[in-house]
Specification:
This protein is an alpha/beta fold. The protein has eleven helices and nine strands. The chain binds phosphoric acid mono(formamide)ester (CP).
Length: 305
């Protein structure tokens, strides 16, 4: 059975096929009837052991627009609270003839673990601070849509790199597609091994922004943070926050991204988030087409569709 567990396991050709398929589905979801009948014989379970707005709704919409049957599971209202294990939970769901599992989980590697113990196709919708592959795919797809090919583009990822699955998956995808990548943030929030991924570290935000074509502003992941890693919010905003004045002081017009949810006034001010340089809602819109493509390509390996 095939899975999407991380960008680490994909090739450049895999991503090209996903983008090509997403191009088709993007055209489909802009039609008056936004649905195709492709996956009428597929049932998908969305398992969320951690909160989500964008990813959960985007997967559900993608599945429904492919005509799949969908069941949604939220850990907080399930028998997980009575002590049921992950494998038991998933095997019970699969016994009801489910073909594919989309899972968000707080533990890094949860999707990989599950793929070794259950007989279903697994899509990782974010596993702790490890990977968020569909986010990186939709981010790269959005850069490609805005600037043309990814190859040769300069992307800076700003903020809490240490706790960010978005950062790691983006680094893997951007490097694979030939972009130059820098990270910028408090040194306590930059992983020690980051240079081994072919990424440069730029501690000064203004320098990083002057260099880049695209700035991806990450959310500070307070829920995964040891408090000693974090400067005060005031200091963080002063050194690593993107505001209109800073954006306007640059020599060129850069593209601003954010995976959401935004802490307005912390990593990015509202006048930047809502400006014409930000493609934040385009990222969300593209997420549905990207997830339709991923699900369609994996489903085509399970059944003839
Ligand atoms: N970008 C993202 O993963 O957002 P959610 O946590 O709301 O799904």
């Amino acid at each position: 059975v095939d899975h999407l567990l991380g960008i680490k396991y994909l090739t450049k050709e895999d991503i090209a096929l996903i983008f090509q398929t997403a191009d088709h589905f993007k055209e489909v979801i802009n039609r008056p009837i936004k649905k195709v009948p492709s996956l009428r014989d597929i049932t998908i379970a969305n398992l969320f052991f951690e909160n989500s707005t964008r990813t959960r709704l985007s997967f559900e919409l993608a599945e429904k627009r492919l005509s799949a049957d969908v069941v949604n599971f939220s850990a907080s209202s399930s028998s997980v609270t009575k002590g049921e294990t992950l494998i038991d939970t998933v095997n019970n769901i699969l016994s009801m003839k489910v073909d594919m599992v989309v899972m968000r989980h707080p533990n890094p590697g949860a999707g990989i673990f599950l793929s070794r113990h259950v007989n279903a196709s697994i899509i990782n919708a974010g596993d702790g601070a490890h990977e968020h592959p569909t986010q990186a795919l939709l981010d790269c797809y959005s850069i490609r849509e805005k600037l043309g090919e990814i190859e040769g583009k300069k992307v800076v990822i700003v903020g809490d790199i240490l706790h960010s699955r978005v950062a790691l998956s983006n680094i893997f995808a951007l490097k694979l597609l030939g972009a130059q990548v820098k990270v910028c943030g408090p040194y306590t929030l930059i992983p020690k091994h980051i240079r081994s991924l072919g990424v440069e570290v730029e501690p000064n935000l203004k320098n990083a922004l002057e260099w880049c074509d695209v700035a991806n502003m990450l959310r500070v992941q307070h829920e995964r943070m040891d408090i000693s890693y974090f400067p005060s919010t005031r200091e963080y905003v002063q050194l690593f926050g993107l505001n209109r004045q800073l954006l306007d002081s640059l020599n060129k017009k850069i593209v601003v991204m954010h995976p959401g949810p935004i802490n307005r006034g912390v990593e990015i001010t509202s006048d930047v988030a809502d400006s014409d340089q930000a493609i934040i809602l385009d990222q969300v819109q593209n997420g549905v087409a990207i997830r339709m493509a991923v699900i369609y390509l994996l489903a085509s390996k399970i059944k003839q569709v």
